[in-house]
Design goal:
Distance between the termini: 18 Å
InterPro entries: AAA+_ATPase, ABC_transporter-like_ATP-bd, ABC_transporter-like_CS, ABC_transpr_LolD-like, MacB-like_ATP-bd, P-loop_NTPase
Protein name: ABC transporter ATP-binding protein
Number of strands: 10
CATH class: Alpha Beta
Strand content: 25-35%
Shape: globular
GO molecular function: ATP binding
CATH architecture: 3-Layer(aba) Sandwich
Number of domains: 1
CATH superfamily: P-loop containing nucleotide triphosphate hydrolases
Largest sheet: 6 strands, mixed
Organism: Arthrobacter gallicola
Helix content: 25-40%
Mean pLDDT: 92
Strand order of the largest sheet: 6-7-8-3-9-10
Radius of gyration: 17 Å
Number of helices: 6
Keywords: ATP-binding, Nucleotide-binding, Transport
Structural class: alpha/beta
Bound molecules: adenosine-5'-diphosphate, magnesium ion
CATH topology: Rossmann fold
Length: about 230
């Protein structure tokens, strides 16, 4: 059942990139997908099948060539740039493979910066940052800078930072590609945990089929086409 409060709805979305000559590459080919709150949708498929393109369109970073993208019921194609930026800041959390933390900042400051960018003033951002770092298992590491943290810990900071803006939609692209198996498994479990705890609609791209049983549903991509999610349970 979907309605206007569904955090992410893609309806018949096609995305074409120019190929540098006269033709186009169809990265997304009539893709439809709904992601509800409190659920993780796993997105699997071979390299080049369109997984990152789907996330970029959902994140409103790239406009669809045709079709409709609704975030919390709002059509992103009709929005002015400022409105789309606001939507990204306030409704969408993005976690990419590389954490891209700022080298000079502590774990807590990485999160506080986000609150300052949002202009949030209702509550000291330091307190929320500390809470979120606790949620991701880093309560003792608030003052650590990126080089003092392991790869898995940096990815945890990255996840906490994505939650700082109170998103309803969490978009995650191969978060464990640089991590060993044990750390990968605990990051996947953490993403599931925060999805439930914060009632997020999460799309999680992974090439590792071993983690698919942790998802609520799995959508598979091939050549830009999406096979609709089937329940894993
Ligand atoms: P995946 O994340 O599944 O590996 P991508 O979404 O990155 O797949 O890519 C889907 C297709 O779109 C591929 O054929 C890729 O080469 C192409 N593509 C991705 N980004 C661009 C771009 N910026 N310009 C042109 N083609 C692109
Ligand atoms: Mg990709």
């Amino acid at each position: 059942m979907t309605n206007s409060t569904t955090p992410l709805l893609l309806d018949n979305v096609t995305l074409e990139y120019p190929d540098g000559q006269d033709n186009t590459i169809k990265a997304l080919d009539h893709v439809s997908l709904a992601v509800e709150r409190g659920t993780v949708t796993g997105l699997a498929g071979p390299s080049g099948s369109g997984k990152s393109s789907l996330l970029a369109v959902a994140a409103t970073l790239i406009p669809a060539t045709s079709g409709t993208v609704l975030v919390n019921g709002s059509d992103v194609a009709g929005m002015a740039d400022a409105e789309r930026s606001r939507l990204r800041r306030e409704e969408i959390g993005i976690v990419f493979q590389q954490p891209n933390l700022l080298p000079a900042l502590t774990a807590q400051e990485q999160l506080v910066v986000v609150a300052h960018l949002r202009g949030e003033s209702t509550r000291p951002p330091e307190a929320r940052a500390a809470e979120l770092l606790d949620v991701v298992g880093l309560s003792g590491q608030l003052a650590k800078r990126p080089h003092q943290l392991s790869g898995g810990q940096r990815q945890r900071v990255n996840i906490a930072r994505a939650l700082m803006g109170h998103p309803s939609l969490l978009l995650v692209d191969e978060p464990t590609a640089a991590l060993d198996h044990e750390r990968s498994a605990s990051i996947m479990k953490l993403l599931r945990q925060v999805t439930q705890e914060f009632d997020l609609a999460t799309v999680l791209v992974t090439h590792d089929v071993e983690f698919l049983p942790l998802m609520d549903s799995v959508a598979r991509m091939r050549d830009g086409k999406l096979t609709l999610p089937a329940s894993v349970a």
